[in-house]
Amino acid sequence: MSSPQNYGVWKPIAENIEFNALESNSNAVMAVADTVRTTLGPKGLDKLLIDQAMNRHVSNDGVTILLSLRAIHPVARMIVEIAERQEQKVGDGTTTAVILAAEMIKEGKRLIRELAVHPTKVVEGIESGVKYSCDLLKKSAKKISLDDAELDQIVKTSLSSKLDGNVLHKIVVSALRTAGKDAIYGDTYDFDKSIKVIRRTDMDDKIVNGVILERRRLDPELPMQVNNAKILILKLDLKPVKESWIKDNNKYQDILKMENDRLVKSKRIVDAILETGANTLFIASPEVDQVIEDLFVSKGIFAVHISTEEIEYLSRYTGAKPVRNLDDLKNKDILGTSEKIYEDEDIGIVYLEKGLGKKIITILISGSTKEISLERWRSTIDGINAAEAALNYGIVAGGGAAELHIIEKIKQLKLKGLEQVGLEVVTSALESIMRQILTNAGFNGLEKVMTAKASPDGYGVDIDSGDIVDMVAKGVLDPVLVKTMALQASGEMAKSVLRIDKNLAADDLNPQAVADSRR
Fold first, then answer.
1. pTM of the prediction?
2. Which fold, 4-142+395-501?
3. In 245-280, which positions are buried (b, 16+ CB within 10 angstroms) versus exposed (e)?
4. Residue 393 backbone phi and psi in degrees, to 5
5. Helix 290-299 vs helix 252-275: crossing angle, to nearest 10
6. Could you read off the pLDDT of 253-266 as tens digits, one per residue?
7. Residues 389/378, Cβ–Cβ less than 8 Å
8. Under CATH, which number does the domain 211-364 receive?
9. φ, ψ for residue 67 (rounded to 5)?
10. What is the pLDDT of residues 435-453, one digit of tens each?
């Protein structure tokens, strides 16, 4: 039985909170976090993912693992969504976000259950603690440029736990510097617009200063190569008369009229295209009439079918403006230019070199199997995203050191009443990152963290020797954006879960269903 001193606080909480819901939701979060926590850091381990068709894939990418889970519990699905959002916004730090959220929820549950702190007080403390933590991390961040050695270290840190990380790190850095200032849009770098990553199993790793399309010519009789290409990107309908209309008509005269109409319209379209001076066509319309295709062959025009997703890259690289109707063909500035376009017929790839527009770099990632090439492709994109975040927002010490050394400053933050204990939730989470990295490296994480706490700012633990080292001098760096976004995402998740006092199924709100269940 509770003591008289505690009862006055405990009773109203016990009347309003369904602890079974808190326990259930907390357990769901822990189960998801335990799935990915061993992947964190350079010494993290991999997971073997097996789908329903028994396809196998080895990965240590947090969001890939989480998205493969068939989570049933609604809170478990919320955790997966948080990781997915982190991936979309930053492209890295998904595992960190999940571990932070799990630690906040675990510590928040302890405060609510054992110390009888009301959830709203815990949540308010988390909100203040996360905001202050992010402010401290941003203030300590160092800006870097494309030529700085820190860029190499950022990419290397990001890829340190990935498959072939040492090889991919060099490829990524080379591509970033080749893209250079052409990747700046407005005031920030946007490598998604200037670096394209594709994967193959029949080629070696390769960086191409240009665009690669995994496409073949529209017809084998079309030219294989065009020098000084004048390019049109066509989104207009190249099927002027649908074959289904002809098939559905059983009158000979009507069919003949439609066929003649088809020939006339097809020739008009091709003539309008030729009048622009174009000798190369990228076609995004779903179908191309056979008559039009035959006319392209007879005129010796290089033509390739493309997807709508490829239009933006081609337009940016060549300077061509997409044509949506015949009237657009009359505009003078619709043509793009590329010095050389050719197809490698053996492997089905089209190369574009020296385009008139913005510089675009294509990274071709190989792999002995589709699964390996996919994992290496994901890793490459993670490295690019980490570099982009670092260039735009700055860097801090990695390995959990930046988080560890702001803990004491957060504890000095003065909040009202019981909100103060909510800060413990945030400080515990901040400490958990280094602890997990060290645990995954085979050390006693708690012991090493205690030692690292007494070291100067920026110092952490060398995961090879166990010594306390300057993480910045060691080259272990992280983009500050990855850390702040992970903190914000995990804080939102923790606040949502800790405020839930009951899990309700749809039938729980249906009086008739409740009545039937009691019979």
1. 0.82
2. GROEL; domain 1 (1.10.560)
3. ebeeeeeeeeeeebeeebeebbeebbebbeebebbb
4. -125, -10
5. 40
6. 555 666 777 788 88
7. no
8. 3.50.7.10
9. -70, -20
10. 999 999 999 888 899 999 9
